[in-house]
Amino acid sequence: MTIENMVMDKINEYAELFVSVFNSEPWNDSWTMETACDRIESMMNTTTFIGKACYADGRLMGIIWGQKEPFYDGIHFQIQEFCVRCDEQRKGYGKALLSALNEELDSIDVKNVYLITSRGELTEGYYQKRGFVTSDYMILMTKGR
């Protein structure tokens, strides 16, 4: 297994994985290659982007990325997307990606890491097992357009 920084040359590979994972349970989204490439490219083109890709035997197993955010007490980091190939979950790829990301965040003295996810054992439960807590003071609010 190898972990590397995400690079623009592999955007189609990342998008294929992204579409296959997020169009499956528990999300059941409706991503296309075009919309996934647009999302990934827009994130990667920022100066605050950090992204990691995990490979095993030359095959992309998972990706994680997000943005650094200056805050009054230092740098915060929002994990924006994190996925592992559906048929390769529970094999340590996600743990390896989180570990590699955390090493980089430690090296730049990130003070806080946060994310938005759906409720449930597969999502919220996954992060709780890795030290994340559900916030008692912050909520996500949305307004459809």
Notable characteristics:
single chain, 145 residues, alpha+beta, Aminopeptidase, 32% helix
Verbal overview:
- The structure is a single chain.
- This protein is of the alpha+beta class and 145 residues long.
- It has a single domain, classed as Aminopeptidase (3-Layer(aba) Sandwich), CATH 3.40.630.
- Helix content is 32%, strand content 29%.
- It has four helices and five strands, in the order βααβββαβα.
- Strands 1-2-3-4-5 form a five-stranded mixed beta sheet.
- Helix 1 (11-22) crosses helix 2 (33-44).
- The termini are far apart.
- The relative contact order is 0.15.
- The mean pLDDT is 92.
Summarize the structure.
With 145 residues, the protein is of the alpha+beta class.
Helicity level: 25-40%
**Structural domain count:** 1
Main beta sheet strand tally, sense and closure: 5 strands, mixed
Task: Provide a count of the helices.
Answer: 4
Q: Unreliable runs, pLDDT <50, ≥5 residues?
A: none
Q: Give the CA-based shape.
A: globular
Sheet/helix structural class: alpha+beta
Mean pLDDT: 92
What is the CATH architecture annotation?
3-Layer(aba) Sandwich
What is the CA-based Rg, rounded?
Answer: 15 Å
Task: Indicate the proportion of strand residues.
Answer: 25-35%
CATH H-level homologous superfamily name? Gcn5-related N-acetyltransferase (GNAT)
What's the count of strands?
Answer: 5
- What is the chain-wise order of helices and strands? EHHEEEHEH
CATH class: Alpha Beta
Give the termini distance in whole angstroms.
42 Å
Strands ordered across the widest β-sheet: 1-2-3-4-5
The name of the CATH topology is Aminopeptidase
